[in-house]
Write a structure and sequence with these properties.
The protein has 3 helices and no strands. The chain is mostly helical and about 70 residues long.
């Protein structure tokens, strides 16, 4: 059946929304390819997207990448 998941936004001050969707997808797919739950995949996407929109440009910070990396 169909399931729906809601992902809580990560509070941030928006400066530039360039690449927000692409970066969300990258975080989601990172989680998916590492066997994470859909909820966790969405959380990864939200973490990265909130990071990229908090500054100008389309680069994700190393700090945000470290937040989603699984050891």
């Amino acid at each position: 059946g169909k399931q729906e998941f809601r992902v809580a936004p990560v509070p941030t001050r928006v400066k530039d929304t360039t690449a927000a969707g692409d970066v969300f997808a990258a975080g989601f797919l990172y989680g998916f390819t590492n066997g994470c739950s859909p909820e966790e995949c969405g959380r990864f996407g939200a973490i990265l997207a909130s990071d990229v929109i908090s500054r100008y440009g389309s680069e994700v910070s190393n700090e945000a990448l470290k937040q989603i990396q699984r050891t």
